[in-house]
């Protein structure tokens, strides 16, 4: 896959290039410009806008749940990809402006800061969700749940939920600031996770943990929010010839939302309220372009309807109405699926392989580690690295920037604000999706050079460099990082 240069600066806003080397950015979680399906979107837009009935639907107020043909097309596409035991109905889908906006909307509808006890974030966690939870009133209620090699430390989560319930006692006098609504409910807890190819840790949660987590969610009235945003981007680790796209076999684990739909009678089992305990948060950002600001949620029909009845959704309909008409065409014609299969997966497989080989050559011998090293199928955008024992991620990040014009993400920015229990000062995250393909190996080599110098000079942790303050209540420095 040839890569053309993008118009984006390789350094995030506010960062200067102190060394004379060409800048390399392994921090930014954007697709490389060459991977955006510009001509397909142009063709879909022209077709949609040339048909008066589609153009009209696209340009006027739309349905609360989103453009009906888009819901149908997404349901069909998800059914063929995930292959659940029964087809996914369109009524399970509610359109929105992408995973971030969907999360904000769901918190509006399904939580109440006075009675939702905690937001449990599998940590390290995608750092830009912290503010979404803060905006919803949960600044002091975010708690980290550590990952283990299988994805999540469920025993820890159970123990902490029990403590939180105990502290809350049986007090039912807490004020409610939102009116009672038949079409929605207030969940007692929220768990946020990225079960497959997580951002940032690149881990995938095992099947048995997925089942256990759904059971736990049912037991404690948890809403499990799964950002299933990287599922379509996967490839086998051992696929030297990524041009043979038909050999790019994948291994689909059922999503947590699929398990919640099927396990023990699903959300319609005796005694359940029908809302379900899992929502899958999907987005076109990683598949067609983040500027589309378009995505969907999938949950029970009752849950999805509740989302569609949020005030911001009802006033004018779901966001990205016009864009939905383009995406409908891309899905109905199979062009998006073809783009994912023949462009994105081979390109990301190549990019991953370039970065992983360079890590094996330059970093593993220095004592770096990678999570879940024996996986047969990998995916997503990121590689998470554990550092040699004496190194500190913030210091390494700063030195890479100053001495090598290289930007990487220190593990500390993925720590849950306000919870000191899960620290990641000895980790960094590298992104292989954004930087030009030919710079991926070079970027890793530069890290190796810096680390060799640090190890040789015997520099220990906690040096003079601090890139990002812990807790980063002001996360302006994170803008554009994703
Ligand atoms: C885990 C995760 N969730 C959500 C998003 C943002 O998605 P969207 O662009 O749909 O808001 C990202 C982007 O990097 C992500 O990694």
Describe this structure in words.
The chain is an alpha/beta fold. It folds into 2 domains: 24-36 and 337-478, Aspartate Aminotransferase, domain 1 (Alpha-Beta Complex), CATH 3.90.1150.10; 48-334, 3-Layer(aba) Sandwich (Aspartate Aminotransferase, domain 2), CATH 3.40.640. It has helices spanning 38-50, 52-59, 68-82, 99-110, 129-135, 154-168, 207-219, 256-262, 301-308, 311-314, 321-332, 335-363, 393-404, 437-456; strands at 24-25, 93-96, 118-123, 142-146, 189-193, 222-227, 234-236, 278-283, 295-298, 377-379, 382-386, 406-407, 409-410, 427-431. Strands 2-9-8-6-5-3-4 form a 7-stranded mixed beta sheet, with helices on both faces. A 3-stranded antiparallel beta sheet has the order 11-14-13. The protein has a two-stranded parallel sheet with strand order 1-12. Helix 7 links the parallel strand 5 and strand 6. Helix 1 packs across helix 11. The longest helix is centred in the C-terminal third of the chain and has 29 residues, at 335-363. It is globular and about 65 Å long. Residues 59-447 form the Aminotransferase class I/classII large domain. GO terms for molecular function: 2-aminoadipate transaminase activity; pyridoxal phosphate binding.
């Amino acid at each position: 896959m040839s890569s053309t240069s993008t118009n984006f600066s390789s350094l995030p806003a506010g960062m200067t290039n102190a060394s004379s080397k060409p800048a390399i950015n392994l921090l930014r979680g954007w697709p490389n410009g060459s991977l955006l399906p510009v001509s397909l979107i142009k063709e879909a837009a022209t077709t949609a806008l040339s048909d008066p009935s589609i153009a009209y639907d696209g340009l006027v107020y739309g349905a609360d749940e989103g453009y009906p043909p888009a819901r149908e097309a997404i349901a069909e596409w998800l059914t063929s990809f995930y292959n659940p035991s029964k087809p996914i109905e369109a009524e399970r889908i509610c359109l929105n402006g992408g995973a971030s906006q969907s999360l904000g909307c769901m918190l509006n509808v399904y939580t109440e800061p006075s009675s939702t006890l905690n937001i449990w974030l599998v940590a390290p966690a995608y750092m830009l969700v912290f503010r979404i939870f803060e905006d919803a009133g949960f600044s002091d209620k975010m708690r980290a749940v550590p990952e283990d090699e299988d994805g999540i430390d469920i025993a820890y989560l159970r123990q902490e939920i029990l403590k939180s319930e105990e502290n809350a006692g049986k007090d039912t006098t807490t004020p409610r600031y939102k009116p009672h609504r038949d079409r929605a409910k207030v969940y007692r807890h929220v768990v946020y996770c990225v079960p497959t190819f997580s951002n940032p840790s690149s881990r995938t949660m095992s099947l048995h943990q997925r089942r256990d987590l759904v059971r736990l969610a049912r037991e404690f009235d948890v809403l499990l929010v799964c950002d299933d945003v990287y599922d379509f981007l996967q490839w086998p680790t051992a696929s030297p010839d990524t041009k043979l796209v038909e050999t790019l076999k994948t291994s689909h684990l059922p999503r947590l939302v699929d398990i919640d739909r099927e396990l023990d009678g699903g959300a319609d089992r005796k005694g359940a309220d029908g809302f379900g305990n899992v929502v899958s948060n999907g987005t076109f950002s990683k598949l067609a372009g983040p500027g589309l600001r378009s995505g969907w949620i999938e949950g029970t029909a009752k849950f999805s309807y509740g989302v569609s009845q949020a005030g911001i959704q009802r006033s004018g309909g779901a966001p990205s109405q016009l864009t939905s008409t383009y995406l409908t065409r891309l899905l109905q014609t199979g062009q998006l699926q073809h783009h994912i299969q023949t462009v994105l997966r081979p390109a990301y497989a190549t990019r991953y392989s370039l970065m992983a080989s360079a890590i094996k050559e330059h970093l593993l011998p220095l004592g770096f580690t990678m999570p879940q090293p024996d996986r047969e199928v990998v995916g997503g955008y990121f590689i998470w690295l554990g550092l040699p024992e004496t190194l500190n991620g913030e210091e390494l990040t700063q030195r890479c920037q100053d001495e090598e014009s290289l930007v990487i993400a220190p593990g500390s920015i993925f720590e849950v604000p306000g919870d000191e229990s899960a620290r990641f000062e000895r980790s960094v995250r590298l992104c292989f999706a954004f930087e030009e393909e030919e710079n991926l190996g070079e970027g890793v080599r530069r890290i190796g050079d810096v680390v060799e110098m640090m190890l040789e000079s015997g520099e220990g942790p906690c040096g003079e460099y601090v890139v990002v303050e812990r807790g980063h209540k002001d996360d302006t420095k994170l803008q554009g990082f994703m």
